[in-house]
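Chain entry —
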Amino acid sequence: MEKAIIKTIDVDKSFPIAGREPLQVLKKVSVEIPEKTLTILRGPSGSGKTTLMNIIGALDGPTSGKVFFGDREISAISESEKEKIRRTMLGFVFQSVSLIPMMTVYENVEFSLRLSGYKGDKKERVNRCLRMVGLQNRADHMPQELSGGEQQRVAIARAIAHQPKVVFADEPTAELDSQTAITVVNIFKKLVSEENVTIVMTTHDIGLMDAGDVVYTIEDGCASFQDNRGKV
């Protein structure tokens, strides 16, 4: 496997439950996310895949074990340092899309550039990102004027606008029909190639298992590995 941009070592995650033993969601999970790949975390609801994504995305911390972003152990840094990493080096696409309803498509994407302190040509970057997701002609529309698939593509453009190292997409196709879901995954693969970004995506859709370069199946809190690179 190529150099890992994210790595976990023996990550456990438990959640306290009043009056009962803590619920252990992840058990000694060790994964390596290769640079410039589409990596899929696959598993049924409740398997722990979103919990793992939140931990490697610096949104949560492990109960025990270590998490590395590049050579830096992010499981051992302050919350303010994690927040800076999230704002400048990571992008997020959520199942709920979470576009700002009072902003146009263009403004939603530009907003992420302002949050990250992007120093380049903002107009050029926004337009490029909208072209990459095929929505350059919808820049002046409001989110409620778009279909669900179009809204998800705006969310993707917003997530990659500030040129993050890694984009995390949590069940981005769950609310989409199968054809639109395939379109979204193809956009992810295009972004990996053209933007040199690493994308980590969760899904419970077994039909998307072969779409990733690398697949980790999360089951009962444990992870198993599948490498699809080199397959015809």
